[in-house]
Every structure is written in C-alpha cells, then in structure tokens.
Amino acid sequence: MAVERTNRDVRTLITQIAAGEIMLPEIQRGYVWKASQVARLIESLYRGYPAGSLLFWKTGQPAETRGAAIGAPQALPSVMPLYLLDGQQRLTSLFRVLTDHPEAQVVFNIETEVFQNQSAATRRNKKWIKVYDVAGPDGDVFAIHAELKGAGLDIPEAEIGPRLSALQKITQRDFHMEVLQEFEYEEVAQIFVRVNSGGRALKTTDLALATLSARVPGFLGQLEAESAHWAERGYGVLDVNFLIKALTLNISTSSKRIASVARLTAASAESVEAAWAKVRRGLSRVVPLLQEELLVATAALIPSLAALHPLVVYYGRQSDDAPIDSTVDNGLLYWFMAATARNRYGGSADSTLAQDIKALDSDDPVRDLISNLGIAEGGLSVGAQDLAGRSHQSPFLMFSFLAAAHAGATNWWDGEPVSRLVDGVGKPQYSLAHPALTLRGHHSKYTSAEINELANIVFVSQDTAKNVIGTRSPAAYAQAVSASDLTAHAIPNDPALLKADGYRDFLAARRQLLADRITAILDRFKPDFLSGGSEPPRAQEDRSLVLTAYAGAGRSVLVAEAEVKGRRWAGWICRAELEAALDAASAGLASDVPMGEESAPMRVDDEGSVTFAIGPLLVRGSLDQWRSVVKDAFDEVQSLDECPEPTDEQWTTDIEEFPLSSIGSRA
Q: For a disulfide at 665, which of 251, 401, 449, 600, Cβ 3.0-4.6 Å?
C-alpha cells in the first residue's frame, strides 16, 4: 500500500473537476456549506492562511460515484479519475465561486478587505467587487482597477493594485494532496469516515453508510431515491439518516433484540436487502396512514421522527398481502399521538426505541406500546391548561394543525383544505390570527410570549396572511371569511374577543376550543381497552428554561435562565458564537460555545439532534428548532442595560435532559 504526496494549485484542481478527472465516490454526502463558510475560505486563501490538505483515492477499478454540486455536468474523463475523500466542501465551494455559480457570489470590499456573499447593498456599492470578476477565467483586473480609482475610496490609490493582485492569485494557491493507492474500497470507506469526522464524534451511521456503499455499490443511490420519493409527498425530512436508522432497526440479532449499527456494518448483503425491503414496505403503509387517516400533511409537523420508527418496523414486518385490522391501525396512530403529546422522544431516543421495538414482539403490540407510555386505563385528554404558554416549538403545534384539518378548515385565500397546506419546502404554513402589529405597544402590554402563543396561530397560507389578515385585528378581516370556516379554525365567535382589547380572553377561549378538539381526535382513535376517565399529558416537572435576547454597545447576547427543583442559574451566550456553532452543527461538526468564563459543548447526534449543555440542562432539539428559537428571541431584543447578571458559580450536580420544545420565552 502506498500514499503519494504532491501539491496542486486551485486553478489546476478546478480544471480537473470540470474534466471529470476528480470525482466524488458514492460514500460522500451532499454539499452543505453555508455562504458564510465559502466567504471565509476565500478570505483564508487571500490572506495566505493554511486551507488544509486534500485526500484522494486512486484505483484501477471504476468505483460508484455521485454528482458534485457544481452546477454543471462533469466531462467523461480521459484518464482514471481521482476519487475525493476529504475536501469536498472546499473544492466544491472554490469551483462554484470561480465559475460564477448563482449561489456562490462572494464579494470583496477593497477598503476593508472583508469577504461576504453578494447582496442588494453590495451590488450598489462600487467598493464591493465580485471575486469571480477578478479571479475568474475572464477577470479584467486593469478595468476594475481603473473603475476603483474614481470610486472615492478611503485607502491610498497605491493599495488598490496589490489587493486586486492578491485576490487574483488565490487560484495559484497550492493545496497539499495525499493520494491513497492500492487500498480496497471497504478500507477506503472507513478511512473516509475517520478523516471526515473532524471536530465531531465519529457518527456510527456514517460508518454504516460508507461500509454498505462499499459492499453494495449503488446502495446510497437507493436511499436517496427513496428519500426523494417521500419528499415529493411532503415527507422530505425522511432523509438518508432516517432511512439508515430504520434499516438498523429492521436487522434483528434475535426475535427479542434490536441490532446496533455495528451489527448493520457486519450484516450480509442478503440480510441488508431483506431489511431494506421491510423499510420500504413499512414506509409505504405508514405515510399514507398519517396523511389520509390522521391528516398529517407533512412530516415537518412531527416533533420527533423517532416516533415513526416503531410504526415503520411494525408495518414492515407484515407481508405485502397481509390484511391489517383497522383497530390495529387506529391503535398505532393513537400511540403515535400519545407519544408525541408525552414528548416520549424528546430526549435520547435509543433506549426508548429499544423498549418500543421490543413491544412489537408481543401478542398485543398496541397494548404494550401504550403501556410503555404509562397511560392509565382512561387514555389521554388535553385541557386548556396544557396549551397555555405553548409556542410553535411545542409538540402541540401538530395537534393544532390536526384540529383544523379534521374540522374541514380551509385556507382563506384560495379555499384549499388545510390538510394540504404545505409550502414549497414541505413545511406547514401558518400565521397569527391577531397580527403582532396590532398587539405590540397596546396599553394591555401583551408580552412577546403571549403574542406568539400557540393559541394565536392559525393555519393559513402566506397569501392569506398578506392579503386577508394583513395588519388588521380579526374584528376587521373576519367579515371576509365565512362564519363556518372561522368556526372550523376554532376562532371564538364572541366579537369582543376579535379586538386587540380582548386578546387575553381570545387566547383563553381558543385554548379551550383547541383542547376539546384535540381530545376528540384522540378519542376517535383510542383503543377499546382504554376506558373510563382520561388523564392529561404529563408536564415538564421542576425544570424550566427561558432564553432572552439583549443588545447594546455593539454587543448581542442571549441570556439563559434555568431553574431545576427551585435552584436557579443564569448564563450569557454570545450571539455570534452561538450562530457560528449552529452553522458548524449543520455540517455535523461539534463546537464548544463560550458561556461566561466557561464553555459549553454543542454536539450533533446520530439522529441529527443538536444538544447544547446550558447550565443544569442538556437541551435537545433539531437544528431548525434551534435557529427558530434564536431568531424568535432576537426579534424581541431588549436593552443590554436590563440584562441580568450571570450566575457566578458553576453548576456542579448532574445535568438533566430538556427538550427544546419545552422552552419558554420572555418579552
């Protein structure tokens, strides 16, 4: 076995990519870099900073490949290509910038030497130059230099030339290359996972995918095709990671145990094929059940996709022609709703999944699954108090959607049923019934938490939000909507509650209407063995977390205030550091976020959940949830002068898991 070491400049590497002489092996995942990361890479090359090395694999046998996200087809290579193992994000970004890709319009400020993505403001400002116009194949440095002389710059004219020259020379920067030769594909797959783990813990799903791709060429393509199939039906979040987990759960070591990912990597091609057939069969039954019976239009409504796995495993085990009693379908859908209301998969999912998958082996899986939830004989009910203080991050967002869909509610703009109201990226569309502009500054001093409460959310399109609701109270726009459809959306019919003065009473009335409807939906699917009085969902006990944004004097911070069993803790989190950590998390990378004089770990697990240790709590949520929580907080930013002091002492006792969906907010 040999490793060849050499160097090549950026221009040569870009030419080789276009010529198909550098290809992506199937084990590579998709392109994920944000525009800010691309701009930082170009800045590093401009300043002469190290940009890392590249790792390739050279083999005499053709390997399965995947298309690169370069915005153009690659030519058929005239020589055996090099397969890129480490450096995909960097080389793809450089190719896009230097070929004028519409999503890689990086610009350079000649005065400040700052790089960023193109915007409307930079287009109007002659001090900002597109990197492609200087470093691209048709770059005309002399013409740009002449234009800049008359742009009224605050730097000496003598500085313009050297800065443009340094920018142009980024294509001459060398990358160190290591080329693996005489390695088998399976070994290369494991090397790929290790070198790409970077600042994160090694993800076992990555190793499983790489190993399966090595053993079953084209398997990643099957996974991606399956994911794309469900994306067309509104379930785009059923991605490759979800499918790999489902595959793992369908490979059993015995009738009473579920397999680990390590077992998946050692499984025979035949057992993988059989498990994959179960996954596809399970999904082909589960998704129609959710969409047609429960009216869950999109998987984006589901707080934790882990709750789908027991359903996929159960239906995957049934033969294609096996009839399934409707009482079983209803019972499994009831369990799914109850598990969601109880936030069963809000924490670490593996041990919970093991318990629920084991329940499927029993003679009465529905009863045993519900028993795992600890639900008493009466079943589950939802009261108005369960919805109080909830936001769109709450698991009850899904139930509020179902309340409207099962009542036959329609979109007020075009009459489309709410059950099909999904935007272009597969997310449910909604707006505020009482617009924020009618409530902010009101003499009743409504807080941000009240304004954005779940009970103020109505499922309508953005066209409705713009053209029907606008900036008017319900009292003003309700006449444009039929009374029956207002009722279907659980809008109270008392005219006084439709005015800003009656907003708090509106919330109380609508919570009750929604709670009654949600309980009715639960009762519709409730198994016969659950009888008698029902119980409410369990609330998060003795734990709370509030995130509040403060800004001033050029500084923006997010203050976390936690309470566990009467003991309080407060910490300051720098907004820029937090957002940088979330950007890293989107690429699967771990970070340590400064919090006062300490630092707190942010990690991404195999399920794609982001965990962040905030004082006494290990807070878990999806990347979209985290971004939404941060945005919501800074939409209502307060003066830094009002910011509470952080807790001096470090939290020394055990930290407890806390779902991001249970987070509070403060105006």
A: 449
